[in-house]
Amino acid sequence: MSSQSTTPLGMAAYRSPSLFQPHRARQALRDANSGKIAPLIGLYLGLSTIPTARFVAPMGYDMVWVDWEHSSCGVETMTTIVHEIMFMSEGKTIPFVRVPGHDHAAIGYALDAGASVVVPQVDTVAQAQHVLSASKFGTHARGTRSAPPFRLAPGLTDTCHDATNPLGIHGNLNDAAAVMIQIETLAGLHNLDRILTEVPGIDAVWLGTLDLRVSMGLPGNGGMGGAEPEWLDAVQLFDDTMARHPAVAKAGFALTGMQGFERSLGGKALVIVAADVMALMGLMGSLQVGREAVMPLTKGGEGGRRVNRSGDGVVVSGNGKA
User: Fold this and answer.
1) What is the pTM (predicted TM-score) of this model?
2) Residue 56 CA to chain centroid, in angstroms?
3) Residues contacting residue 191 through CB under 8 Å, at least 6 positions apart
4) Contact by Cβ (8 Å): 59, 43
């Protein structure tokens, strides 16, 4: 893992000429993977709401994972969330959208919004080829993505980062947005070497530990892994396969406070260290503290009254008077 840190500008160093365009996330992942910059530090948005995205955008995360797969938001909401992250962070944070499945249109919607994409449950070479095809413009890039005529305003938001690209803005978009796939079954894991060999253009791979464990008939453990021999063999197979493809970045969770946090960081170009849902679960701790604090108030009172004699004040609730 690199000892370097990202620039004070965060991912603004990789922003495109317009915030309506995706960041040059592919280059950011390459630089993190090679050690030129530190791994990208991310936040997982499991609830995928506009107010939450607006609130976290200025915090300074390098990327925010928008979970469209497991949330009820529609295309318009997803698009607005992406724009909130882009604009409210002033380009310092890259939005990655996990799309709901392999649908060609869904991948296009997320990319049109200006995000990079995470595609779940990629099991075969054919599925990976479909994902890349839906993500790219032009047959030279093996792409079938439809070119949106007015997603970018001509002369206003379609300025090219690389004016020498022969495909113009569409070539620039091909080179900017990253494509990350998730391996979440044993079939996908055993096919990963072929996928990365036969489908160039995948920028990063995420081992989906929760789905993989469930698919293997093991307890989910919240996706935090386990010690079963078959599980350890699966993780080792993933690591060995990725080692044979050093140009492809590894990504995954390394939640702060989790057991083995430092070890979880190793070898990854992108790590998610926090989640909105985990932060909200912390409210249960506040509830418990509150309950424990008021429990003494229910003892020693009279006639159903709760008496708190703290300091100089006496507070009585119930039928009594203060």
Assistant:
1) 0.88
2) 13
3) 123, 124, 125
4) yes
